[in-house]
Structures are given as C-alpha cells and as structure tokens.
Specification:
Elements (H helix, E strand, L loop, with lengths): L9 E4 L13 H15 L4 E4 L16 H6 L3 E6 L2 E7 L1
Parallel strand pairs: 1-2
Antiparallel strand pairs: 2-4, 3-4
Amino acid sequence: MFYTNIRSPVKLAIIPSCPSGREAEGVASALLESALAHSSKRGARILEGYPVAEGHMNIDAYTGYLPMFLDAGFEPVRNAGRRTIVRRLL
C-alpha cells in the first residue's frame, strides 16, 4: 500500500500481484482488508483505489479488479478508461 501526501486524508490502496494460479485464493482481498485496517488506525478517512474494470486486462501495475473493491465496500467515483476510481470512507 502506498500513501499520497502524508497529511492528506485520502490514502491509496495498491494491491500487490498474486503468484500465477493463486488468484482465487483470496490473497488480494486479504491484503485489501489489511490496508483498510492499517489506514484507519493511521488516521486515514478515505481509502482510494484504481482497480481494473471488468472486461479489461490488468496489463501493467496490478491494482486489483473492481469486484474485489466493491465487495469490500468501496464506491465507484469515476470511470477512468480501463480503470475505475473507487473510494471507501473509513
């Protein structure tokens, strides 16, 4: 997980890639839940992510897929091409 400006209430959730063939084991979802808990403890009020929208391939930096974020309570904010900007209030 990476942070924006340390004073900003908005933190970014960057979820590392999972080893090939292990995507369905819930590792990325567990990392996202951990990012939520960690950010909340550190005073973040909003967590933001840039998951890949359904129907698009994740061809560069892995930022997760949209359904995972929606399942974790994130709300879509804006469509940004093949990515969707999502946020969750903490």
